[in-house]
Amino acid sequence: MVISYTWFVVPLLIFIITLAITVVFYSTAPVDFPIHFDMSGTVTDTVAKSPRVVLLLPMMQLGMIALFIFINFVIARSKQTVENENPTDSLKRNMLFRQISSKAMLIMCTIMVIDFLIMQVVTLLALPAEWMMVTMIISVVLILFGTVLLAVKVGQGGSRLKFADQPDGVNKPIRDDDSFWKAGVIYFNRNDPALFVEKRFGIGWTINTARPVAWLSFVIIIAVIILISILF
């Protein structure tokens, strides 16, 4: 239902390229290494160059890749939501939704990793900061456009997908789990072994708050982010 994890070799190769460029050009990088820029591209803060400082962006790339691999895992292992009204059609929609979402996450991951690569090159070679700003804007626009397109054309659970026998799609799935949704946004069901479920509103997935392991996964992600910020 989701893309193979081997596809994440693509952003991983970009990470390796970034790391190689960092090693090659470390000696010629600015001694006062820029770490903050304003909206016009002017450097607002610098720190003394060190291996730890220049490795920040590559490590952020690696963390980003790991995060998206985890998201792909969530998509694959999340609870299968099936409508009572038309279970066969619902299953088909859900499988397509997962496949499309998985591909979208890979594309998003690749865009962000490329963005970090360009940021690193601009910083190491003291190139015009405007290049970095333009790249960031393009990345944000592409990601936002893709997210909107996914919501409009695919919909949550594939609700907007059009099949030959149902050209208008199914926009209002029939569900029987109302009692487990607190305020319509928090899923709490002790009898459901699923750790991840589709959101009731919007698009994407959320956790089953009744499962401690689901919370643990997010604690680990936060801990890794904090660890990277401390070490680099």
TrEMBL record:
Domain named DUF5808: residues: 190-215
Residue span(s) of domain DUF1648: 13-62
The UniProt record lists the keyword Iron-sulfur: no
Keywords: Membrane, Transmembrane, Transmembrane helix
UniProt xrefs under InterPro entries: DUF1648, DUF5808
Highest taxon above the source species: Bacteria
Residues annotated as transmembrane: 7-29, 53-75, 104-125, 131-152, 213-231
Pfam families: DUF1648, DUF5808
GO terms classed as biological process: response to toxic substance
PANTHER family: IMMUNITY PROTEIN SDPI, MEMBRANE PROTEIN
Name of the featured protein: DUF1648 domain-containing protein
Species this chain originates from: Listeria monocytogenes
